[in-house]
Design a protein that fits this description.
Layout: H1 4-28, E1 43-53, E2 61-63, E3 67-70, E4 76-81, E5 87-91, E6 100-103, E7 109-119, E8 125-133, E9 143-150, H2 156-159, E10 163-169, E11 180-189, H3 201-217, E12 219-222, E13 227-230
Antiparallel strand pairs: 1-4, 1-11, 2-3, 3-6, 4-5, 5-7, 6-7, 7-8, 8-9, 9-10, 10-11, 12-13
The structure holds 2-acetamido-2-deoxy-beta-D-glucopyranose (5 copies).
The site of one 2-acetamido-2-deoxy-beta-D-glucopyranose has 8 residues, from loops.
Length: 231
Amino acid sequence: MFSLNGLSKAVLSAVLAVTALTVHSTEAASVIPDDVSLPIPTFEPVYDCSFRFPPNLSNAWIDGPLGRRAIFRFEEANFTDSKTGELVAKLIPEAGGGFGINSTVDAKFYVDAIMMIQFVDDHEYAYLKVNGIGGLGPKNGSSMRVQMETGSASRQALAGNFLMFENVFLPANVTPPDESIAYFRLFQKRAIAPLVFRPPGRLLSRAMTELLVYISCRNISLSHNALNVAQ
Ligand SMILES: *[C@@H]1O[C@H](CO)[C@@H](O)[C@H](O)[C@H]1NC(C)=O
Ligand SMILES: *[C@@H]1O[C@H](CO)[C@@H](O)[C@H](O)[C@H]1NC(C)=O
Ligand SMILES: *[C@@H]1O[C@H](CO)[C@@H](O)[C@H](O)[C@H]1NC(C)=O
Ligand SMILES: *[C@@H]1O[C@H](CO)[C@@H](O)[C@H](O)[C@H]1NC(C)=O
Ligand SMILES: *[C@@H]1O[C@H](CO)[C@@H](O)[C@H](O)[C@H]1NC(C)=O
């Protein structure tokens, strides 16, 4: 006989078992079918960049409806090859600017900037549109999506790829009093295998099933090449 206590324990175990099953089946049931391949993207460094801004960055803000917009002045930046350390491009300080919004809602920093650079070898320009999220501290830099537009012939693969910046601002106490320093690293997405569909096993077996049903309903005979159906 069940005591009330025993019964509620039984009910509880049953509920837990059902919950466990539900959780398990949620994990097992994938929205994306097994025969669709969507690889996790990986990135490789392209350029290492050192940026110089004016001191006391926090003086350069505009209060707006979304938060405080930073109007950092880009004074100087060197873009170097991440592998060789060779100088690749220099920032054009007179063009571009902004930096983003310090949100009044979640205190996160929403990067929104435009940078113009010039490559040192072919003297072509590049326009970089930068949007991201993070912070401005030495421990909470931002991750940014970078869109590059350039006529530089040797950078077309870069301009046609998905680019990312990671950055960090140095703490004020380790930078000279008359400047602010930040480091950026530009990454490009590694080439990945194209989207792959496995041989359509399930479709084939459905087609076979339909054919068998069809055969069982009709009197068919095979001639040389054609499938003849006798009514
Ligand atoms: C950029 O490179 C020049 C030449 O090497 C150097 O004098 C300058 O300090 C560098 N600027 C930054 C922001 O690293
Ligand atoms: C930067 O701020 C510090 C402290 O607020 C101040 O002592 C210094 O004069 C400022 N420097 C500039 C160039 O405004
Ligand atoms: C951003 O705003 C928050 C308050 O909303 C403030 O605590 C923080 O210091 C600000 N960050 C910067 C870099 O000014
Ligand atoms: C980032 O760190 C600074 C201090 O380094 C802090 O003031 C700020 O609130 C942090 N921002 C975020 C979004 O975590
Ligand atoms: C199938 O067709 C053949 C030739 O048309 C006929 O001789 C045979 O009796 C048919 N069989 C059935 C089960 O209808």
